[in-house]
Amino acid sequence: MMLMQQTWALFSSKPAWVKAQYSTSSIDSNPMAATVPGHAPKWAQKTITLPPLRRGCHLVTSQILKEIRPGLSDFKCGLAHLFLQHTSASLTITENYDSDVRDDTDTFLSKIVPEGRSAPWKHTLEGPDDMPAHIKSSMFGCALTVPITDGKLNMGTWQGIWLCEHRDALTARRVVVTLNGI
């Protein structure tokens, strides 16, 4: 069982979800927002710390949902933005059922981005796996945006959120989740 460490963003005196409410007059001119009368747009933000994971691709959907579910349930319609605060790991959404997909993806990344002392990279200050990790991270990216519908992430049946760890050094990873909507 993975242990999760969390930090709460603080924009008020209480450590909780960050929320900003705007007057309904700010959305009156927006025909999409007008479909939910009396609901002002709101924001919530939380930083989640995922425990160190070995190199490879890891399904983290349930860990993310466990941490954001209380705030997520406040949104009828909106967007969840996930931002990984690291340059040697990445986030992606793909197959959530067969672990072979995660293994195959890691195999692909290892073949396309060479590693080791014979690799052509100049940046090796943090070890021979550092520059390849930066390249792999840039390929998949460090941010995801997922629609929110009726208090849930609106992902496809077979979609899952992955953390791809591209280094051998075990490092906890921070993901900032920002929710916006009504």
From TrEMBL:
Record-linked InterPro entries: UPF0047_YjbQ-like, YjbQ-like_sf
Pfam families tied to this protein: YjbQ
MF (Gene Ontology): glycosyltransferase activity
Signal peptide region: none
Entry superkingdom: Eukaryota
Record-given protein name: GPI mannosyltransferase 2-like isoform X1
Species whose genome carries this gene: Hibiscus syriacus (Rose of Sharon)
